[in-house]
Amino acid sequence: MSAAHSLILTEIRNKIGHITLNRVSAFNAINLQMVRELREQLDLWAADNHVRAIVLRANGDKAFCAGGDIRDMYNNQKAGNQGNAIFFREEYALDQLIHAYPKPFIALVDGLVLGGGMGLIQGANFRVVTEKAVLGMPEVCIGYFPDVGSSYFLSRMPSATGLYMGVTGNSINFADALELGLADRYLAHQDIADFDHKLDHLEWSADASRSIEQLLVSFAGNETSSAELTSKHGLINKHFSHNTLDKIFTSLANETDPAAQAWCQDTLVTLNSRSPLAMAVTLELLQRGKQLSLSECFNMEYHLGCRWFGNNDFLEGVRALIIDKDKNPQWNPAVYTELKDQQIQDFFTGLPASTKQ
To answer: What is the span of the domain harbouring residue 195?
Structure first.
């Protein structure tokens, strides 16, 4: 495959292994081939004593990575094959490798990063975002649940912000990501070329992580003045700290503060457009994940994923939003009040008893 058409591009400069996601026409969405190429390269560099650090970035001016290849998943479910189980098993193994990678790992996010893209960056030692970064786990929009370790990292966000992100599917900007712990450092988009130049001429100390940290500090601190959710933390905690969808909907509907009612009504509109089953399973998933280790979270998500494609909400969500684009998914059940708790718990059958409080 020519470099122009390679799914990833790689090079070593100044003892740094650079990986560039290169599926620009698909917003760098991850497919199985891409997962395997990334895994192969990272394994090689982990064993290469001449490589001291990794930088992961993406080509294109819109997206770092828009997530997993949804059309592939849709086609796999329609065909009834094992493609999705294979993809998730290998994708999750790649994500876990990044979390445990033996060398400093920089994820440079300059654009949209959703779903599977979050799995690639959340294990990095240095999650660097520009002002163009938008982060999210929007799976409930297409009748699925947030995965790639999100039951670990969303459940550990401050107050109920992770529950809010998972259940609504709403994304956040770079400043909120910094404030809420989904990113570590801000780097202005206009400074990327200079950052690269300094990486190419970095004088390594015995501690490679410290060398990188000092370089990042020289550019900027955490830039959070543009955070949009800061003023909503109290509301989010008030309305999304509940353990059932019914209580969340009721809490939002019963807001009495006139200054907060418009936000609550907008949030209800959002929730009413999402898959009720996906939202309910997401809520249960995140409540369990808060008590589990990272590897246990991945195992739980894989367990759910293998069971998920027995229902049709994912097919319907993808059809409505991506295939036919009528934006009118017919969820089953259509509303959260028709959900039975047993439907939710059935997805977790075979796992340890719920650890939610």
So the answer is: 3-136+170-219
Q: What pLDDT digit, counting tens, does each position of 139-169 carry?
A: 999 999 999 999 999 999 999 999 999 999 9
What is the torsional sign of CA 351, 35, 109, 146?
negative
**Chain centre to alpha carbon of residue 25:** 20
For Cα atoms 96, 277, 295, give the angle at the middle one, nearest 5 degrees. Answer: 15
Distances (CA, A) of 16 to 13, 187, 204: 5, 19, 11
Burial label for 29, CB within 10 Å (0-12, 13-18, 19+), is: buried
Compute how many other C-beta atoms are within 10 angstroms of the C-beta atom of residue 351.
14
How many residues are listed for the chain in this entry? 357
Q: Over the stretch 296-341, which tens digit does the pLDDT of each residue have?
A: 999 999 999 999 988 899 999 999 999 999 999 999 999 999 999 9
Counting the structural domains of the chain, the total is 2
Q: CATH no. for residue 200?
A: 3.90.226.10
